[in-house]
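[09:14] KT: can someone run the structure on this one? pasting the chain below
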Amino acid sequence: MPVTTSSPGPVDSVPPASAPVLRSGALGTADIAFFVVSAAAPLTVMAGVAPLAIVLGGIGAPVGYLLAGITLTVFAVGFTTMSRHVRGGGAFYAYITRGLGPAVGVGAALLALIGYNGMEIGVYGLLGSATHDTTHALFGADIPWLPVSLAGLVIIGYGGYRSIDFGAKVLGVLLVAETGILALLAAGVLIKGGAHGLSLDSFAPGNVLVPGTAAVLAFAFAAFTGFESTVIYRREARDPDRTVPRATHLAVGFLGLFYAFIVWTAVQAFGDEEVVEAAGSDPAGLFFSAITTYVGGWAADVMHVLVVTSVLASLLAFHNAINRYGLALAEEGILPKALARVHPRHGSPYRVGVAQTVLGAVVVLVFAAAGADPYQQLLLWVNTPGMLGLLALQLLAALAVPLYFRRVSHREGVLRTVAAPVTAVVLLTTAIVLVLTHLDLFTGASARVNTVLAAVVPTVFLIGLALAGWLRRHRPDVYAGFGAEPGAAVGPEPDTAAPRQPALPHD
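[09:31] RB: done, structure tokens below
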């Protein structure tokens, strides 16, 4: 029986009648937004990274987060417009395939696997180190990181095994908690008037146009990583033509405004003259010191605990995204077909989830066996290629949008199909350059290590191009149909476009 959604458009997929499928119509706008905002881990980003942004950019640091949010909002315009026309489960790589061809699409698919896995697996090191720091701060205990990380793998694996609405409910609770503690800090600062009264000097051009702003922008773009994964949940969304764009704009808009507001309140908590010195002397303790002063010591204890739950929420969000990418690629024939199975009761891509959990365990154990530091090496060295891979995917997707709409009949406006994506290409290229030129700030590693980490992205992409060439010669059916699920209705929005199907561009 074919799967349907509440959308008036064509059915997204038509699996065999006997095959279990993803839960259609399980997610609303808020549910999808919970997934993508949780992946960004707002509390962890603020408490762990924002102090470094203040050290580098001074009191103008809040504007860096606003600028990053504006850039990604521009990207989201073309990205979400295309989401109404390309309806397969492959998200990034499906869009890139439709605009740039199957060869580039296969390269993008491998980048997506590396990017999302890198962003998740590295965070198991952060889970171990954050739990160690929290238990030491609260109880004076020193818990080794490895058992915590392995336990996290089991917990997250179970969360991915359960239904998608189960995950949405868990993330909803955790996200409200972590953003709530930051809102509580902000309220305390506003009520007490900050250290010397409230000031808007952070937004003055003279405090924004400083040499350190480039580094702040690099950190700010990294803080949004994962927001684009809204489209991965298309097959499980209610009325996806509306839900997915709304969730995307809601997520990026919330993150941009929330980050800027919280960093500004941190500046007010210490004062314009004192905050840079305070962040430089104790970056890890900046937010805990502020909430102790303006709310109370008990709130600092709660914040310590919520940092750990914030990391767990980020892990679960990325795990679910990876599972759906893996399912789509298994259905395409790129990954083993044995992984293209959905749980008959939970409607989850459980086999991909098991494989991803095993991969995570292997990486964590290898780093542990090598005596690596869970934060400085497991987190930063594995996350960095993942972040670069996702930025590269955003750039490729932005390039694909105008090329796709040149090939199909449609009634979308030029703002959505040309102006916004071309602007996004320029802005995202700038963002990638900023991140690459400040890579040492992300990794704390030597130039040689940074070169290796940066080289992972083009290497994986080239491997993808080589794989595409092999598929074209030896499995032409897989190559020709790449980028659209079997049975997917891939084409323009039914009420705005001509009836013909867009053809895949071939090399």
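[09:33] KT: thanks! DSSP finds 21 helices and no strands in the chain.
[09:34] RB: yep, looked fine to me
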